[in-house]
Amino acid sequence: MKTAIATVSISGDLKEKLAAIAAAGFDGVEIFENDFLAFDASPREVGQMVRDHGLEIVLFQPFRDFEGMPEPQRTRAFDRAERKFDLMQELGTDLVLICSNVSPISLGGIDRAADDFHALGERAAGRGIRIGYEALAWGRHVSDHRDAWEIVRRADHPNVGLILDSFHTLARKIDPETIRAVPGDKIFFVQLADAPRIDMDPLYWSRHFRNMPGEGDLDVSGFMRAVAATGYDRVVSLEIFNDQFRGGSARSISVDGHRSLVYLMDQVRRLEPDIRIPVPAMPDRQAVSGIEFVEFAASSEEAQHLAAMLHTLGFARAGRHVSKKVDLWRQGDINIVINTEPEGFAHSSYVMHGTNVCDIGVKVADAQAAVERARALGADPFEQPVGPGELNIPAIRGLGGSVLHFIDRSSDLARVWDIEFRPVGDDNRPQNAGLTRIDHLAQTMAFDQMLTWLLFYTSIFATRKTPMLDVVDPAGLVRSQAVENSDGSFRITLNGAENYRTLAGHFLMENFGSAVQHLAFETGDIFSTAAALSQNGFKPLTISPNYYDDLDARFGLEDAFLNDLMSHGILYDRDEQGGEYFQLYSPFYGEGFFFEIVERRGSYAGYGAANAQFRIAAQKRHMRAKGMPKR
Ligand SMILES: O=C(O)c1ccc(O)c(O)c1
Ligand SMILES: [Mg+2]
């Protein structure tokens, strides 16, 4: 099976598109007619340019409003088709997509359409051209692949076949299982696209909101399973109309596209073991079980400030690296590493971003397999020279140039702290605050990068995404979506800033790029944690009293309980089943980085979205009070 992508899916002129598509590893392209019309080179030159990139033109599209026309439009449609056949021969492609007629003057009738296709098939055959018929979800008479198939079946011509597009089928909630009834050799081409489930007119939804398989909410995998079951093994091609992608980086959108196809094929192969699906063998999505460590890059001076903050949070210094200027701070199962080496990766990260999280250790079932899978999906491996006494821990590049290390239980990697670190005493031990583990970490990025990282995490790790939420910042919207595993031991929230005036946007600007903006620690008892923190000199973020008044109105809380929340600056939320969530925030470290402490009780599975607006407003007040730039 070959992979391809439609030129309409990415930004740039035709030449830029082809370069990005080739670099991402696709075998072919669908030439979208307008991309060709807008480009000033002859069809022959364009065909050559495609082949010079090592690509093949697997489809020319779209040809509109063909079948079921009354005269004189019918004759015109046939003449128009002949002109496009000429063009296709110059380009060097033999397959054209005809999408179902949307013209108000077109006539219905399956036999009329079938007769038109038979006649066109005859003309195409003489020129070695094949015709594929696709049902648009908004076609005037044909909007269902089953009707398109019936027309193709009745057209009964070897040069006329069916084109399937996952969007049109799934958007209209047509059961993809119906595809299994179509003979594989009559399916000439398959286009794939996903989309977020939004209730809107299908044409508008299709032309603006499609995204890569796995990035949206449609069952593209179920669709592809049914296609594969027919024996279809020609091309799977991405046809993604998306406003954001049109304006994004052609390179990174192409890489995402290729990753989404490899991921999808790998999934389908696992679900349909009897079907031969030619995708390179790779380990399955890795089971994850939490965050083993978070490493900050800092200067010696800034490391002291960060350490002072960790101290107030109840962390004690627990180890020093055997050969490097790297300290380990620990509380419960939380390992925070501060790296102040004057060279190497952490140092470059510091020079680029200032103090920031440069490395995250993810607990996986099999570290080597995790790297193998990530590589098969096009992730960049990360390696740096291994110093004396150090372990070679498998790693890849993650968000914003940071690194993800993989730690498993089955090798020496499990003992990294004993092997690479010497224990040190902390003569100034703070009061332990009862923090047990990392509940989640929150990564901030530009909004248009969210899909990239969502796909990155969900394709490598056995995780799922939660629905996207809007978080209101006084200066604009921030979108938030989590990636988590099924038992909640691994949670990353992705926050996408739409402008630079929001708290998230300000962080992005000051940090020179995407990074972890906050770390949330878990406690089993938020009130005793709050008491211990206050003994350590911790000053929580101050929340408006108005918030607590509303909390009482919403939940009808006991006075004493409400007072406890208020006096410690704890935010509260409750779900429908009575599950509860408590949140306590630290002041900022630097230009917008902060810590959060959470307690989950019962079924609560969210992240306190209802509180986010009030927390952000409080943080902005705090920023102004500290004389940080007003945003
Ligand atoms: O939006 C459209 O018109 C359009 C055109 C061609 C396609 O293959 C398609 O899926 C949609
Ligand atoms: Mg299509």
Automatic annotation (TrEMBL):
<feature type="binding site">
    <location>
        <position position="440"/>
    </location>
    <ligand>
        <name>Mg(2+)</name>
    </ligand>
</feature>
<comment type="similarity">
    <text>Belongs to the bacterial two-domain DSD family.</text>
</comment>
<feature type="domain" description="VOC">
    <location>
        <begin position="437"/>
        <end position="587"/>
    </location>
</feature>
<feature type="binding site">
    <location>
        <position position="165"/>
    </location>
    <ligand>
        <name>a divalent metal cation</name>
    </ligand>
</feature>
<dbReference type="InterPro" id="IPR041736">
    <property type="entry name" value="4OHPhenylPyrv_dOase_N"/>
</dbReference>
<protein>
    <recommendedName>
        <fullName>3-dehydroshikimate dehydratase</fullName>
        <ecNumber>4.2.1.118</ecNumber>
    </recommendedName>
</protein>
<feature type="binding site">
    <location>
        <position position="518"/>
    </location>
    <ligand>
        <name>Mg(2+)</name>
    </ligand>
</feature>
<dbReference type="Pfam" id="PF14696">
    <property type="entry name" value="Glyoxalase_5"/>
</dbReference>
<comment type="pathway">
    <text>Aromatic compound metabolism; 3,4-dihydroxybenzoate biosynthesis.</text>
</comment>
<keyword id="KW-0413">Isomerase</keyword>
<keyword id="KW-0479">Metal-binding</keyword>
<dbReference type="InterPro" id="IPR037523">
    <property type="entry name" value="VOC_core"/>
</dbReference>
<dbReference type="Pfam" id="PF01261">
    <property type="entry name" value="AP_endonuc_2"/>
</dbReference>
<feature type="binding site">
    <location>
        <position position="134"/>
    </location>
    <ligand>
        <name>a divalent metal cation</name>
    </ligand>
</feature>
<keyword id="KW-0223">Dioxygenase</keyword>
<feature type="binding site">
    <location>
        <position position="239"/>
    </location>
    <ligand>
        <name>a divalent metal cation</name>
    </ligand>
</feature>
<dbReference type="InterPro" id="IPR013022">
    <property type="entry name" value="Xyl_isomerase-like_TIM-brl"/>
</dbReference>
<keyword id="KW-0456">Lyase</keyword>
<dbReference type="InterPro" id="IPR029068">
    <property type="entry name" value="Glyas_Bleomycin-R_OHBP_Dase"/>
</dbReference>
<dbReference type="GO" id="GO:0016853">
    <property type="term" value="F:isomerase activity"/>
</dbReference>
<feature type="domain" description="VOC">
    <location>
        <begin position="290"/>
        <end position="409"/>
    </location>
</feature>
<feature type="binding site">
    <location>
        <position position="191"/>
    </location>
    <ligand>
        <name>a divalent metal cation</name>
    </ligand>
</feature>
<dbReference type="InterPro" id="IPR036237">
    <property type="entry name" value="Xyl_isomerase-like_sf"/>
</dbReference>
<dbReference type="InterPro" id="IPR043700">
    <property type="entry name" value="DSD"/>
</dbReference>
<dbReference type="GO" id="GO:0051213">
    <property type="term" value="F:dioxygenase activity"/>
</dbReference>
<feature type="binding site">
    <location>
        <position position="596"/>
    </location>
    <ligand>
        <name>Mg(2+)</name>
    </ligand>
</feature>
<dbReference type="InterPro" id="IPR050312">
    <property type="entry name" value="IolE/XylAMocC-like"/>
</dbReference>
<comment type="function">
    <text>Catalyzes the conversion of 3-dehydroshikimate to protocatechuate (3,4-dihydroxybenzoate), a common intermediate of quinate and shikimate degradation pathways.</text>
</comment>
<keyword id="KW-0560">Oxidoreductase</keyword>
